[in-house]
């Protein structure tokens, strides 16, 4: 997740690093004491947000004028980075509130401020005097050189070198895209549709998902489309018609309006790219990332496709057999709404693993306590509850403390449970980045929608993934705030989060659960080993789907963009399961409506890096020495060095894709004599 969601509005390949220039106060002449956690009290209602936004923008414009007058050798990079810190003080909290605040008025006011800041951003990055001063800066070292180049790229991508009419058009496009991206996300966030089910249809679905749900006049259970509820129904509902209703509702979020919005976004991005002299939006954004070009990213995605295609077909064959046995018809057709159900069913049958069984081992918030203990053991950071005002009674704050020195490092916010109007998946917001220069403490907000009864292993993986992002924010130690935390190349940013997911299946790591919850029953090692094997079941199918998403994104933002739904029908239609008429997946593909446009391949790319990072922990997943080295060489530098260099410093060699492709080897076959026969309904 990006540090500030308002940055998504800029689109057109302007990096978070460059956009972080855009607020307004020059660096203080003396070092200030470390700042406390961001305050949400001053922006607790819509009028307060509007006032704070107006004041912040006035300051930004005042200091833009002062920046223009700075001599070239007077610390321009430091002054520009001070703008980052000032901007974050308001826009960091607002970016979070626009997704999680229970009041629609507050969410709307936050987004209105995001649009106002975006308009300022468009104009600021076209300030030719500041751009010329930046070009004349002589970097003191590699860190300065990296920041200077990144921010020059941001000015160029905003159209600073275009003639006046071109600059004006670029500002118009940026403003339009900011509104379109917000509208796209709002339609998903505010989708309050409920799908009706009889209790009989939900009999095989965990009761914690539906027993307390509201009923309609006919007594049917009314279920919303939040991720935990949706996933539970399509994974556990034995009734195929019930699964189909939920699946179709989920695959129409955003609807025709979002399809039109995505089409408009793709065409505006393409126009921007052409005005900048590039053939596609993907070419603009990828030139500054690890992949380097759209061609290289596409080649990588194609390589993954070739590696998983056979395994995908084999996975589907098993699922078809499972459905035929389940419904008692050899000619039964496997539908898309069947995939999650029969995947989970076969996992349970082959490996005697039921995800719901793990909630007894991780009741309540034991999962949170576990990841905190893991961070203390591995990375030397302790999390202590602290009094910090939030946005909802259930949101809470923790101070991150360095174990060795007792030094406060930053603040972590947690918002764990679903509610109406809240972002309904899992993500981390970098509310504020830190920097050693300003002795500034960072803050991150981890937002999920978990079952209140406890976690299963899949959800614990999700928690560790998001916690990896939060640690990246909280443990960075950089010269500039614009380089702190997750402000790094997009195709690297998921690696530290994906890497940690695997700790769920390490017996020594999971033994930490008993340290934080002595009364919790321990997970038997053989059950954890079975769960690990079960996790990899249908891996070919899962990665093939990710490959499709990445390829679709690159095609939509390629040299010849097409209408989003037509392109999706063709691409999904060429897969083994084909396309389901009436489904509208692109309408809910929020990643590419926002900052992952042209960059969704990053999840697969980062997974390659994550697998390579894990090799350093192979001998001992709880090695404090390896954890310290990882913290110092991967997390602490944030984005102030290229990811290739960070990987080499940590691994002692250039990074490799070998570990990733080794994981795609055919899985070990289960002994048929020990397999569980699937019963009929």
Index terms:
Neurolysin, domain 3; 681 residues; two-stranded antiparallel ribbon; disordered N terminus; mainly alpha; globular; single chain
Short description:
The chain has helices at 16-19, 46-68, 76-100, 104-124, 128-136, 142-157, 164-189, 207-210, 227-236, 240-250, 255-275, 281-286, 294-327, 339-351, 366-379, 457-474, 490-493, 495-500, 507-510, 512-516, 525-535, 539-556, 564-573, 590-593, 602-614, 624-635, 643-651, 658-662; strands at 195-197, 221-223, 381-386, 396-402, 408-415, 427-432, 443-447.
Which word captures the global form?
A: globular
Strand arrangement across the biggest beta sheet: 3-4-5-7-6
Proportion of residues in helical segments: 40-55%
How many DSSP-defined strands?
7
Distance between the termini: 42 Å
- Structural class from helices and strands? mainly alpha
Low-confidence spans? 1-34, 669-681
How many strands, which pairing sense, and closed or not: the largest β-sheet? Answer: 5 strands, mixed
**CATH architecture title of one domain:** Orthogonal Bundle
CATH class annotation of one domain:
Mainly Alpha
Radius of gyration: 25 Å
The helix count comes to 28
Mean of all residue-level pLDDT scores: 90
User: What is the name of the CATH topology of one domain?
Assistant: Neurolysin, domain 3
- Portion in strands: 5-15%
Textual characterization of the structure:
This protein has 681 residues and is mainly alpha-helical. Among the domains are: 5-189, no CATH class; 195-250, no CATH class; 363-519 and 601-662, Orthogonal Bundle (Neurolysin, domain 3), CATH 1.10.1370.40. It is 52% helix and 6% strand. The protein contains 28 helices and seven strands. It has helices at residues 16-19, 46-68, 76-100, 104-124, 128-136, 142-157, 164-189, 207-210, 227-236, 240-250, 255-275, 281-286, 294-327, 339-351, 366-379, 457-474, 490-493, 495-500, 507-510, 512-516, 525-535, 539-556, 564-573, 590-593, 602-614, 624-635, 643-651, 658-662; strands spanning 195-197, 221-223, 381-386, 396-402, 408-415, 427-432, 443-447. Helix 3 (76-100) packs antiparallel against helix 4 (104-124).
